[in-house]
Specification:
By secondary structure, the protein is α+β, with helices and mostly antiparallel strands. It is built from 12 helices and 14 strands. It has a 7-stranded antiparallel β-sheet with strand order 1-3-2-14-13-12-11, sandwiched between helices. Helix 7 runs antiparallel to helix 8. The radius of gyration is 19 Å and the shape is globular. The two termini are 30 Å apart.
Length: 394
Amino acid sequence: MAEVPPIRGRCDPRFASVREALARNFRDHGEVGAAVAVAIDGRFVVDLWAGWADAARARPWERDTLVDVFSVGKALAALALLVLVERGRIALEAPVARYWPGFAARGKEQVTVRMLLAHRAGLPGIRHPLPPLSMYDWDRMTSALAAEEPWWEPGRQHGYHVNTFGFLVGELVRRVSGRKFTAFFREEIAQPLGADFHFGVGPEYDARIAEHLLPGDDTHLAGYLAAGEVAGRAEHDEGRQRFLQAVYANPSGISGFGTVNTRAWRAAEMPSTNGHANARAVARIYSALACGGAIDGIRLLHPETVERARAEESSGEDLVLRRGSRFGLGFQLTRPEFPLGTGPRSFGHLGAGGAVGFCDPDTRLAFGYTMNYPGPRWQNPRNRSLIDAVYSAL
């Protein structure tokens, strides 16, 4: 049984069970450093943090500690694109090539913006081996994706675009808005909401970024995939292994193994994987979506666009994960195997190791959980216990 560090922050007495669940995560589930935030109608009822921001346990987790939240950022990349849809700058049914002409290569002429957001474009990986760390070169990555042949017929099936989603969506944002994705997100979403969420962070942030305790390099990733951790069962087929290598490890370092704590990783523009935030920032952004697209007089989307975003676009067997998944337009939707609370209309996104952000429009609730010690990728007991505690208090 591990020692429980002081749980700091504030918590409405009604949600005392969330504080207790966070303490249990440290005592029983190996938590090192973490934060959890819950807002209802835009008002924070939980804003807690505890533990350590480094492996040596020498640097306490503070109120403003940031950490890489990995795929939590995918949904916010989708949100940036939906802002442009809302403004009439881009159409969901239009071919991607209307805005990105080079994308039409290798049979992708009919891939629509909707397919891209719903993980149906067939571009979860790049076949041609790229030099290590090429993910730091935006033009190289987007050019490689534009030239790539789909792995399946676009639109017919879906598969989680683990590391490519952010480049694909972000390039559309760049081409339509005329701004880099990082600038668009900062100026149109994070700054107006006062949300401490960043893609591409400068060295001035390093003192408050927690060390993410992901294993060291791609040899760990190879073992991870070979053991079937991603799919939930062993993956012995040679063709399947080549596919997973393209998805998770081309270029080397793209999944964060051995790279996540480097200055180059933090500074890069990688919307699928290197958003840095605290739980409060995640919940703040989702508060707008929980409340029909606007909060405190700041409107990101109209309610109709929010409903369109959370409507089911993909469900069933996922060709990458080889288990069921369910997506709206860039958002993961609640499902029995991983319920985002009890609300059937809840939507959000998980991040590697257990981070999660979501909202429940029926209760106007927004939730954010950030951490630096990864647990199971699937059905993580730490985020599960926090979410259950929140809903037990409602």
